[in-house]
Amino acid sequence: MNKPIPEKLFSQIDAGVKLAMKKAIERHCKLGESIRIWQDGQVVTLTAEQIPPLDSTCK
Fold first, then answer.
1. Burial of 29 (C-beta count, 10 Å sphere; 0-12/13-18/19+)
2. Whole-number CA gyration radius for the chain
3. In the prediction, which pLDDT does 45 show?
């Protein structure tokens, strides 16, 4: 049976995933590459110009 993930470990994993996503989005924006997101039940492509700003993105 699967053991539950301790809260501290879960928080560390969650923080790491969020940081990796932020870095990937910033990279795409800086390189002028599009990204795909899930929105309203479907996959939507955003151009680099359409990527909403995150704290220190290229905008």
1. buried
2. 15
3. 96
Confidence (pLDDT) at 19: 95
Which tokens belong to 2?
């699967």
Q: Over 70: is that where the pLDDT of 56 sits? A: no
The model's pLDDT over 20-31, given as tens digits with 9 standing for 90+, comes to: 999 999 999 999
Locate 52 and state its tokens.
Answer: 């909403």
- Residue 22 φ/ψ, nearest 5 degrees: -60, -45
What are the Cα distances from residue 1, in Å, to 4, 37, 41, 45?
A: 10, 34, 33, 39
| Local structure of residue 1 (DSSP, 8 states) | -
Q: Which residues face 38 on adjacent strands?
A: 43
What single-letter amino acid sits at 18? K
